[in-house]
Amino acid sequence: MPESAPHTDTYSFLGPAGTFTEAALAQVPEAQGKPWRAVNNVGEALADVVSGRSVAAMIAIENSVDGGVSATQDALASVPGLRIIGEYLVPVNFVLVAPRGVTLDAVTVVTAHPVAYAQCHLWLDANLPEHGHLPASSNVAAAEALFESGQADAAIAPPGIDKRLDVDVLAENIGDNPNAMTRFVLVSRSTVIPPRTGADKTSLIVELPEDRSGALLDMLEQFSTRGVNLSLIESRPIGDALGRYRFVIDADGHIFDERVADALLGLRRSSPNVIFLGSYPRADKQPIEFFARYDDEVFLEARAWLDALIGEEPA
């Protein structure tokens, strides 16, 4: 969906057209019928949101094979005022394509997005053991580069690319894991928190107060003592000194859940920097399971009990 002019309802995505990111954006009901803007990288997508050029941006944040997307995690940690308002899952697989007439035995350099390249390394090692890798900004851009730079003989691209470009498919299903899935998030400046559904996720970035024995355990105990499961925890260097890390965290539950809210209060007391990225419905719609002792009513009753003690008149 081409963009004709800046528009308050524009949605940004990693382009060009035909990427997995565009497929994720196609799952967003609110984006249908609105202008879509293809960008070259995560930084440009988030800059669109910050500047108001786009109402939201779709970006990849995690892959089931390759783990977290570090460029996205670092960008979310450094760009203030952003919130995740939804997540979307896209199955991913890849084909190897080349200009017409190029055969597999003639391939010496393969261009690919780094994440896609990492997900196909077993096939590449087995079938092109001496190949070189030329990074590309996206999976579709890799295929397009075959006709622009001339530096690569073949490209790793999404299935169906041969219907858009004049290429031959040299090999199909070259991904190392046929069940690979990429998780995308829709990021905006909105501070309106989506209502809780019972199948929610809360994303955070947390810095440790100091580099010492037990510091990470102290952070994790803020969740474990309140019955909050973590579906993702990854470390990223803060960048100001060796040994200084922040943690990207996905917690099961919603900030409106008392157990999650209480955990955030604990983090706020102990961490020098807690970035709340948002609470939003899980893409898989799986209800969050937890023990009854962590029900909202238990936390509320305990607070009411304490309030009553504080309010008692001395004898």
Automatic annotation (TrEMBL):
Catalytic activity: prephenate + H(+) = 3-phenylpyruvate + CO2 + H2O
Domain named ACT: residues: 204-282
Catalytic activity, EC: 4.2.1.51
One Pfam match: PDT
Top-level EC class as recorded in UniProt: lyase
Sequence intervals crossing the membrane: none
Name the record gives this protein: Prephenate dehydratase
